[in-house]
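Fold this: GH18 domain-containing protein
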Amino acid sequence: MNKAYQRFIDLKKKNPNLTTMISLGGWYEGSEKYSDMVTNPDIRKRFVKSAVEFLDKHNFDGLDLDWEHPASRGGASSDKENYVKLLEELKEAFEPKGYLLTAAVSPGKGTIDAAFVVPKLNELLDWVNVMTYDYHGGFDNYLGHNAPVYHRPEENEELERQLPPMDYTHFTVDYTVNYYLSLGLSKDKMIMGVPFYGRGWTLMDAQHNHLHDEAKGMSPAGWIGGEPGVLGYDELCQMFNKNDSGWHHTGDPYYLAPYSWTNEIFIGHEDKKSLKCKIAYLKSKKLKGAMVWALENDDFKNRCGEGAYPLLNTVYDMLNGKDSGSMECPYGDIYPPTPPPTTTTTTTTTTTTTTPAPTTPTDPPTTPTTPPTPPPTTPTTAPTPPPTTPTTPAPPTPTPEPIDVICSRDGYMEYPNDVHKYYQCENIGPHQWRLTLKPCPLGPSGEQLVWHQKLRRCDY
């Protein structure tokens, strides 16, 4: 591991302006051990001391705290207060040495409210990495998108009641950004997350390929990433480039991103055009910058003919390179457009009221809003996209759960009665868990995959 750290630090020889930081935490870490650490002042002090010693030893420029869900996923309600104490003590220890202190934080309103004193994040951190992705995926029961900028007009409270426990109104990039701003995170400290991957579903059948249709579960794992329900751009671009792939594609004028489907799977993902939209949106909000997850999901070997690192280069060009002055968004309008003139017609008269054209766009409000209807965009390929009018299937009947299966943390468990099924345990709030029995998807030849507990995935 020390050699890997050194190879990373040595990148400064190629770019002396490079900042190298170490990140601690991650989704799979949960909260339990971090909650225990921040609760005890002595252990907290020991952690701070060890962090400084680690940065000294390996010549990192700072620490990024990736404890994403304080107060949930095995944490305690006191985490919110104790997280601030940890930041204060790290800040005090780091400042004399000039070390940076940053954090990655959740995009979900419920987690934000339970976990973070946002004005303190603003005060104590050098910047905040907001993970504006993973809003929807194969862990949901219904088709959607991993990182929608806005929600569609029909994605309202009524649809949420029809498709529990879906949350569309709070689960968008725009809502998350505006919510953090409204709570006191300044624009010059907010880093907006950009995904280099998509999340996918296995379709119920070839006809159920529309947004909000019910799905079987996660799409099969890719051959590179190996994680069910997740496909990196390096996998997707190769799949799309096959002449016999059977993929259909369309771009959404609200999500400002594409989604694609075959007769078997549906993926809400990103491409170069959607990243232009996301960075243009970021610039319209005057945020500090962007972070990406993750570099290994880019086509860094140029397998798809767009050059090495096509997504990373798009982000860089929009922020600092040849397109730094561009606000281009090929999938729609990053600014809510002015509503068209309102015309009312009767049998005898027509009354028209026209809204004056706007002047130069101003910074959008920080209060979360629902964007007005932008003009439709042209699908990215010839196949006819599915209708965007949502279907309203009845909520699925929950699979009975054995009384001896108890969730205590996020993860997956084997289902003893059928090797082709598994349990998924998800935290949905403080001390609240959802247990779902899911089937393994079909393999490429049509055979159903088998759950492997050691691998924690469906495989052959």
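The longest strand covers residues 421-429. The first helix runs from residue 2 to 9.
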